[in-house]
Amino acid sequence: MDSYEKICFQNLLEQMYGESVCVQHIEQQSDGEQGASGCEVRYYKVHFTRGTRHLETKQMISKEASLLERQVLALLCEQKQAVPPTLIPNLLSEKSHFYQQYADTQIEGHGPFDPITKAYAHALARIHYMNLGQHPEWLRSATENFEDRLWLRAWRKEWHLNLTIPRFALEYGCYTDRLDDSLSRLLVFLHERTTEGTSLTLINTDLIPNDIRSIDGRPMFIDWDQAAYGCFYLDLPNDFSIETVLCYRDALAELGLNIHPALFMDRFHEVGRYMGLRYLEVGLQAWHRHYNETMEQNNHALQQEKKSTDDNEWNLQYWFFHYCLELALNGR
Fold it and tell me: What InterPro entries does this protein map onto (predicted)?
């Protein structure tokens, strides 16, 4: 830990507490869970004092992030949105570090009437609402060329590669045309939202469960490296179910954007295809790997030793593949 990083953590703590802080000691930790976007994330325990108070400790991270992510975080912090307290020393370089309080895993709400569910819905709705129609010049657009900008092409290559495997072709080949139709339907939906314009705002585009977190019970959203200006419905399928998504609609209505519930639910159903098509590539790759592994049993003893671990991993991947396929074909 160099003196520059120590100063950065001290400045962040002073920003958080609004008073003078003295960092006493910093311990670097092993890898944690907070989002990375392919970037280096380091984890720390920072021990500090405030005035004459006793020694306190906060978990912190530093992340080498893109300029886009740092600009998005700077905007969200300025708006006092649901992102962890963050210090961004550099808003000029293409790659640089930011410093941030560590956010715990998401607190799960239990149904649409749970205050926790409503809190997460309101936090996300507030980000979207406060940035409606605002397109900073530095924020990339996801209002056209959807297949490239929203990673909707990748599944095709993997799908047709898997179709060369007779077992896969026999079981899944019948879905090829339906997937093509589903993608076309999603693209029409997104073009309609762009033309309409009322749902265009700052979006995360990749709001997976691990990026939805908490600090002291309050919702936090992290990992903004793929943020864009686009349709807010794209941020909903992974975080909300049919049972809970009306909490988000209600939060938008409270903030000032009232969408008729039936219309909103119809759009939520359509946009559910997005997460399925976007992540189907990952499930297809896992299917292909598993097939290759079962075909290459050169060391039976080693295979048996690894079988339990491999089976558990494959069960998760198998579930994820079918989860994505179901979303891609049918929406939410």
Answer: Kinase-like_dom_sf
